[in-house]
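S1.2 Input.
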Amino acid sequence: MATKKDKQVQAAVAEAPADSAERAAIFANMKEVARTVVRTFGRNCEIALHDFRDLECSLIHLEGTVTGRKLGAPITNLVIKAWRKEGDAVRDIVNYPSTSRGGHRLKSSTSFLRDGAGRVIGAFCINFDLSEFEAMQSAIEDLTRLDSQEDKGVGETFAAYINETNDAVMEAAIRKAGKHPSGMSREEKLEFIRILDEEGAFLIKGMVGYVAQAMNVSIYTVYNYMRQIKNGQR
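S1.3 Output.
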């Protein structure tokens, strides 16, 4: 069962700006910016433009090929978690380390896009492949500097399919819990559901069934755990 905060976030996803032409203009403008940035920084740079109306296939424009994704790929787990936590007040995530599907070390930044009413409607993401510059690190130290992440346990997964995002969210929660859900007690399962909620897991369509299967319980049981957490029960 979605919490009040979940409903607010999901409403923001489903709700278009009062002027649909405004949304179209914002994304059209950002596509032009994406082209300019990639033409400026070359083949090691990628710009991914996400529309939050559908998180399962949010990637609507891609300049560059650094992460190996295609249009229609889902939003990343890191972006979901940040937006789930802060909603429309979410801050841009700048200059953080990530890794491409091919294992290359990347320097990434995510800027959240807002309409005229201040609602978050998407994200403009920059991914820069550092692999060719690592041998020249001392000469280009400023370019390759990486700021530390506030949450040291978070890694970003550039998923091509929604199941990969599901897996990444689940793995992050298992690391925090310190145990696989199939071997957890009832109290540990409740705590595991709370961790998944903080990771933004239940904003993803079908995640309840995915979690139920991993925990070896029914979907009803997962919803019951979610209800208990919402009500502050143990």
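S1.4 Remarks. The chain has a mean pLDDT of 83.
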